[in-house]
Amino acid sequence: MPIKEYIEKNFPSQADFALACGVLPQQVTKWISMGCIVLNGKMYSPRRDVP
User: Fold this and answer.
1) Considering only CA atoms, which of 45, 47, 27, 49 is closest in space to residue 35?
2) Per its UniProt entry, which superkingdom is the organism in (predicted)?
3) Per-residue pLDDT of the chain (51 residues; tens, 9 = 90+)
4) Tag placement on the chain: N or C end, fewer CB within 10 Å?
5) Pick from 23, 49, 25, 45: nearest CA to 34
6) Which residues fall within 8 angstroms of residue 17, CB to CB, at 6 or more apart?
7) Dist. CA 42–CA 39, nearest whole Å
């Protein structure tokens, strides 16, 4: 699922998710902008389009 959806379902706010991950809230904003997803408890970021 998209990371934004994961955060909305599991944390009160993006700031709380950032705190849980040990990063600044700005990093969470970057992850959302990048289109990161969460799958089986792991976060993945897109690297390239595939044909």
Assistant:
1) 45
2) Bacteria
3) 999 999 999 999 999 999 999 999 999 999 999 999 999 999 999 999 999
4) C
5) 45
6) 7, 10, 11, 28
7) 5
Instruction: Supply the pTM of this predicted model.
Output: 0.89
Under DSSP, is residue 2 helix (H, G, I), strand (E, B) or coil? strand
- Distance between CA atoms of 47 and 19, rounded to whole angstroms? 25
Q: DSSP strand E in 1-51: where?
A: 37-39, 42-44
Q: How far apart are CA 22 and CA 42, in angstroms?
A: 15
Q: Which amino acid is at 11?
A: F
Helix ranges (DSSP H) in 1-51 = 3-10, 14-21, 25-34
Token reading at 1: 């699922």
